[in-house]
Amino acid sequence: EFEQEETRKKCIEILKSKKIEGLIAIGGDGTYNGLQKLSNEAAIQCVGIPGTIDK
């Protein structure tokens, strides 16, 4: 979901309103790509943890 711009905007709004400074996401390539965009757009520290069945 983080790869979609509208989803990231909503997420950033929520994170800022709750004064959240970091985010941990579990997933695969799509999660990492979206998380990187989210981190760049919101200046929020993010950590990605592998949780995929991709081979």
UniProtKB/TrEMBL annotation:
Domain Phosphofructokinase: 1-54
InterPro entries documented for this protein: ATP_PFK, Phosphofructokinase_dom, PKF_sf
Cofactor(s) in the UniProt record: Mg(2+)
GO molecular function terms listed in the Swiss-Prot or TrEMBL record: 6-phosphofructokinase activity; metal ion binding
Record GO biological process: fructose 6-phosphate metabolic process
Pfam families from the UniProt entry: PFK
Alphabetical UniProt keywords: Kinase, Magnesium, Metal-binding, Transferase
Protein name: Phosphofructokinase domain-containing protein
